[in-house]
Amino acid sequence: MGTQCHLSIQILMMLKKYFSTILMGIFLLGCEKEIQLPLDPNQSLLVIDGSITDDAGPYYIKLSKSNSISASSNFLAVTDALVIVKDNIGQIDTLKHEKEGEYKTNKIKGIYGNTYYLEVQVADKKYTANATMPEKVFLDSLRINPLAINGEIRYNVIPVYTDPISLGNSYRFIQKINDTLDKSFFVFNDNLNNGKVNQRPLRGGSDSLEVKLKDIIDIEMQCITRPTYLYYYSLNQQSGAGPGGGTTPANPPSNIVGGALGIFSAHTVQRRQVQIK
Fold first, then answer.
1. Residue (of 87, 2, 97, 69) closest to 264 by Cα position
2. What is residue 42's predicted lDDT score, i.e. its pLDDT?
3. Are 87 and 131 in contact (CB under 8 A)?
4. How do strand 46-53 and strand 60-65 relate by DSSP bridges?
5. What is the pLDDT of residue 44?
6. What is the pLDDT of residues 72-101, one digit of tens each?
7. In this predicted structure, what is the pLDDT of residue 27?
8. Using CA atoms, how far apart are residues 162 and 143, in angstroms rounded to an integer?
9. What CA–CA distance (Å, rounded) separates 87 from 96?
10. Domains of the chain with bracketed CATH
């Protein structure tokens, strides 16, 4: 739960940075052509960040709202929403608000292959999303990839797994170094290595933590849906970690219907640890 909360704050700040970039771009280009701003900079936005996993529950849905896109203040917790999670086998779970906008499930179970449906009611507005949990692709091991750069040895971790022969698998990795969360968004798909053993290391952007000798690395591997991959891939590009150091701002794609930002994910989870020796 602590990692999810930390990631939620990180995602909210990334979205805030994204909108600030859009506003700056509009200011710079406004004299050349008319630009349609996708959102009112003074609009209060709901952000939904939640997931169902194959870990034992409970699971959490976090709801936050900004005073405005252009405001510098923190996102505010939404504590008075009605939050319901259902699945395709008849489970219905009305979530209870715990603290700071976090809503906790009571009985629903995460099983790969099942589809989960989220309903959020805030005042007179309703938001919905759904996600089908992919099958688990096993994380066999973690391999260390040393690389000499300007006379210094840098280290990256390679998650070793065999991608299934069927095309369309997506993965997300969360990295902790000595119990400190790496801020980078690590996401892979199988467009270039379908059915093969993964050889790609986890390489972050400018915010990524440096891996050093004797560090203890914890990796969480998630098998995610295509919409979740696109969401985190977009945030990764906005952070400047993508090819070329970033891209032109665009709405982070979301599977949430109703006008909210964020993502509702259903994914499997595996964890492994390695020490740099």
1. 87
2. 59
3. no
4. antiparallel
5. 77
6. 456 799 999 999 999 999 999 999 999 999
7. 39
8. 14
9. 17
10. 2-132 (2.60.40), 141-248+269-275 (2.60.40)
